[in-house]
């Protein structure tokens, strides 16, 4: 996929541009994201949904949770390296808490995302470190409304309507492209998210292998569904 | 494009001159700028205009905003790496605010640009970092008048009358060379900017895919137009 | 096993992703774990068991203890480099003690594991260090119940029901897969752990060559069994 | 021009002497100076003149100013990297101001030059940085009289009577060698400087493409001429 | 012994794992130990013995002492680089003294050994240093009883009954394997140690070329024997 | 002159000995000294003389001064890199002044030389810097008498009777060897120095191209002669 | 002498062991010692003698002194790099003085030697520096008696009866081996030292080319002999 000759070393050190102006290490970090299990989000007019595959390699090992609450009004799903994700999620939680403490109100979600992206960017420009091998989907509700924002390993973020990252991302995005509508409601968004996740997982689409979360504009509280609640949604498909 | 033999390593470390006195890493960083979407600016006698392409890769993802206000009297458009741009824009905003606080007046625009260029230069001379892969077009009005200034990854800046950077820059510059006149007024400048952007974008020239901003000498306030306002300008073309 | 050509240097520096998004140094550190003697754990409804092989290379050298108590309510078994393990175990003990001191209660086990994994992750992202060549099985009981958690050299952790690491891990896991049941009691879990360890050791399965520990929900005290107690359990097999 | 074999790496790291005792990186930095537009100076008995080419690549871009005032009694022209020059010019201005503040009088010009050369030297001896790719011509009047001093990237400086640096330097120096006389007066020196600049520029010798400055012993004030003043001088040629 | 091809660089930097999970630099440091003169120890029920070869290369140079007292109740013998050993022995003495000062009692021997091993481990995980090329045999008596503990360059330690390190280690270990018994008394242990040392030295087994020390549970004082005392023991062989 | 094969890298990093125990970088720095213009000194019974060639490359550029006063009782001549020399001369002046301030008397000359040599040595032993490419001849009079001391780039110094460094050093030394006598007086020493300098310069031996200085035991004041004084001495040859 | 292939890089970086457990850089530093002029010492029952060759390359340059007093009761001779030696001798003098100040008595000589060896060892284990290219012979008298101790570049030291280092060391050692006796007196030791030095110098054995020093148990004062005193001793040979 990457021919050896033309790169000749440009891809081995983070602080170096290739002659075409590319940062290979950042692109390789994105490959770590693509190897992660699928995570996706759908923004509705009245809320936003996150869904991830958390299939375990063995019945004796619990699948790793890939949806985390950051603060009451915002949560995150990720694809990529678990250890890298945890470091950044801790940073996000600390930032959210200290914002609440200092300003007496929930952190604006785009501000929170920028903070995480600033850290990510720093790890692409300075020597002696590698980029973070993780991408996030932040989902939340604040004064400005409903947010679904993706970050990548280079520190870029994108405001999205419906988005998927990880191994099965393309299949999910194809479904979103065909079926997403701008006036979708949160209940439909949950079903759309589940259908997309089912499409992207080749098998094993069961409540145990899935994490599902939502936040809506009514109670503005990030909620991760229990396995039985997920089962109820699956039954509605 | 770059023959391997004559360079033989001079292009791999930022702190090294080639035998011809070139800094390849800075030149490669400029390639990252050339890969960015087109951004352009036109200076009029009574104001200055910025216009950028913000086309999104997918209808489910919002295009990334590439025009940002720095302070009331100055804004910026960029081409290149989003994460790198954000870091420098934050620096610019902090610098502008602290100047206002200390001196009680808006930061002179060339001083602001020099500050950003000093940061950029530092990243081309010290080891362990890479240059910033981003170019800016600063547009503003201060005591000295109307300014359109371009910065490049090496820390150089140029005072311009009309200028474009990014993928479609050459087509826009060709148009400017043919049609720009020194006594252009802000209203004409807006239309010239839009025509140049249309020329540089191969397709997809619609209000949704465009950002447009201006500042004039009358209210000295940087204004980013809404999509419907952009649509109105497009209708006038 | 690793063909030289396609890697060409991506596996030599910790801070570098390979083109496929892999961190070879972390994977090689896991090889150090696989070369360690087998350690395993079994979670029961009312407690959790750890068992390790501590066979010595010579009758004149005592086998190295590979089960350590961290705090009264939690212990750990490891496979991999002894020196690396000791450094992290010291960190875990200090963290547990300072938590007790500050909050007046035992450290939640998952929090403790996260702390150790944060240290591990840091050693995979920053230059000038190598990853820790050790994997742990943490076993403990806290307010949330019974825990068996595995950590790997990259800073990832997995919540497990039954798990083995080191040289003979696969044989033990195969046995667990066939025979582990969710409603297993601590007494049965001890016997299952011993059977799995016997399976994974090719010979030398004697009380002298084994370490065995458990903690249950009744007295919530991590207990490492004496050689004669281990002998008693072996007789029951 | 530089045969690859005999150098074999001696030219790639700043802190290394070649077997012949040369510092290639410093020599390459001088190549960056040679690629810059011509700057020149002429010392008269009663003052000193600086002249530079500031031709722009495009009519839509203003030429970059390459003559800067440092303090009332001293100014500078440069050839080479714009960003590098600006960093050192800022240092020179700060040093001149702080000298005025501390000692209540203008900084002696040779002291100022030494300060800049000390910074330049430091960047040739320590690892992790590259030399400054810029040469200066300092022109000023102080208690000791009239000064024209050139600095190079290695931190050496030369006291000169007439001197040129950059792309067209040799042609200008040839003219100076033929026509410079020690008893030249400032008015003649201006004309000599313009003739030398004309000689070194292949075409485009117009007032718009030229910067001209002087300082004399009568008012001891560094003065950069306006375009119309330059035009007047050109008419006298 | 080490084929060049498969290693290809994994053995040159301390912070790097080989694909098999090995740390070659630590293994090479152990080679420095193997090149050192033989040092050995024998644990008895009522004490422990250390013996080392201190043969000198020339009659005009005194053999280097390789048994050192750390504190009254503990001493050490080493094989490997003299300079490295001295640095760690100084650390051990300081640690022992400060423990006595703070807690008012002799430092527990295993705690002391862990401290030294922590330093050793650190030098195997961080860049810019090499591992210590020395192995120790600590011998001492504390509240927990009699101790003979070996440390290696990687920071691992082993509790031993009888152990030898350095050039002639294998011959000594073979003898120990044949003749060591668990109920050995200190007087017999001295003779066994001398026999093992004689076996491991090919010639030159004289009192002048030997260092011998013991500590027993009766007076708990580490004693290095004089040459004439060693001669007396040799006569008993 | 240096065959490529046997060195194979030992000459590229300052902190490395070659297999023969040589420090190539220090030797290469000495090549920079050899490329410098000739500087020489002659010690008489009642004083000491320094003389250097300061020929300029062009009549429009003044030759660089290579004799500097350090303090009233001591001066220095150098050959090699101008920028490097200036840094060390500044250090010498500061050291001499602070000694005068603290102890109330002139700095002993050998102490001053040692200080400069300590700095030079440090730059040959630590990574990330290169050695200073300059040699000095210190000349002075203190309580212990008359001193002529040479320093080299490695930090070694030699007490000399008559000595030359730089391009023409060998010719001057040959003359000294033939004609220097231990009972030479300062007036004769000046003439001997001039004759040696004439011998070492192939042409251009005129008062303008020469610097000459002396210090004697009568007034103990370092004096640099003016061009007309030099001319007077030349007439006496 | 060193075949290129088997080393393949192990000899280029100080912090690296070769597969055989050797530190090549330390060994190469010892080569620098072997290239130094001969220095030797002889221990008598009532004192100790140092003698060195200080032949100069030219009659116009004084030979460099290689015997230095550290404190009244101890002196040192060295072979190897002059600059490196001076740095360590300064450290030794400071250490001796501060010991006198703090404890009110002369520094024990072995303690002083250990201090110097600790510095030497540190420069063999940490990156970014090279080892010291110098060996010392310390000679002194303290409470414990008469001492002659050699240190090498790796930080090892040896207690000696008679010892030589540098270019002619082997010839001197051969003489010592044949003629040294344990009951030698200081007067005989001086003559033995001179004979050994004569043997090791191929020609030029004159009082001017020799340094000689002694310390005895009667006045415990390190004394460097004058040239005429050396001549007297030579006459006695």
TrEMBL record, chains A, B, C, D, E, F, G:
Pfam family, one: Proteasome_A_N
Regulation: The formation of the proteasomal ATPase PAN-20S proteasome complex, via the docking of the C-termini of PAN into the intersubunit pockets in the alpha-rings, triggers opening of the gate for substrate entry. Interconversion between the open-gate and close-gate conformations leads to a dynamic regulation of the 20S proteasome proteolysis activity.
UniProt GO MF annotations: threonine-type endopeptidase activity
PROSITE patterns named in the record: PROTEASOME_ALPHA_1, PROTEASOME_ALPHA_2
Secreted is among the record's keywords: no
Keywords from the named record: Cytoplasm, Hydrolase, Proteasome
InterPro entries: Ntn_hydrolases_N, Proteasome_alpha, Proteasome_alpha-type, Proteasome_asu_arc, Proteasome_asu_N, Proteasome_sua/b
Protein's cellular compartments: Cytoplasm
Domain Proteasome alpha-type subunits: 10-32
GO cellular component: cytoplasm; proteasome core complex, alpha-subunit complex
A biological process term (GO) from this entry: ubiquitin-dependent protein catabolic process
Chief location category: cytoplasm
Family from the record: Belongs to the peptidase T1A family.
Function: Component of the proteasome core, a large protease complex with broad specificity involved in protein degradation.
Subunit structure as annotated in this protein's UniProt entry: The 20S proteasome core is composed of 14 alpha and 14 beta subunits that assemble into four stacked heptameric rings, resulting in a barrel-shaped structure. The two inner rings, each composed of seven catalytic beta subunits, are sandwiched by two outer rings, each composed of seven alpha subunits. The catalytic chamber with the active sites is on the inside of the barrel. Has a gated structure, the ends of the cylinder being occluded by the N-termini of the alpha-subunits. Is capped at one or both ends by the proteasome regulatory ATPase, PAN.
Protein's name according to its UniProt entry: Proteasome subunit alpha
Source organism: Infirmifilum uzonense
């Amino acid at each position: 996929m990457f021919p050896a000759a033309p790169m000749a070393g440009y891809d081995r050190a983070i602080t170096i541009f290739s002659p075409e102006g590319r940062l290979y290490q950042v692109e390789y970090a994105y490959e770590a994201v693509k190897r992660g299990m699928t995570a996706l989000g759908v923004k509705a007019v009245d809320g936003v949904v996150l869904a991830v595959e958390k299939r375990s390699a063995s019945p004796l090992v619990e699948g790793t949770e890939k949806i985390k609450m950051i603060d009451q009004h915002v949560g995150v799903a990720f694809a990529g390296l678990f250890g890298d994700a945890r470091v950044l999620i801790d940073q996000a939680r600390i930032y959210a808490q200290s914002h609440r403490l200092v300003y007496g109100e929930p952190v604006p979600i785009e501000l929170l995302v920028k903070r995480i992206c600033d850290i990510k960017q720093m790890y692409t420009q300075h020597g002696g470190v590698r980029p973070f091998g993780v991408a996030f989907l932040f989902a939340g509700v604040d004064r400005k409304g409903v947010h679904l924002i993706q970050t990548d390993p280079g520190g870029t973020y994108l405001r999205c309507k419906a988005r998927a990252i990880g191994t099965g991302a393309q299949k999910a995005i194809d479904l979103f492209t065909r079926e997403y509508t701008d006036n979708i409601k949160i209940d439909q968004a949950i079903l759309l998210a589940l259908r997309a996740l089912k499409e992207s997982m080749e098998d094993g689409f069961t409540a145990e292998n899935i994490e599902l979360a939502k936040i809506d504009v009514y109670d503005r509280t990030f909620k991760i569904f229990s396995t039985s609640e997920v089962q109820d949604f699956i039954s509605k498909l």
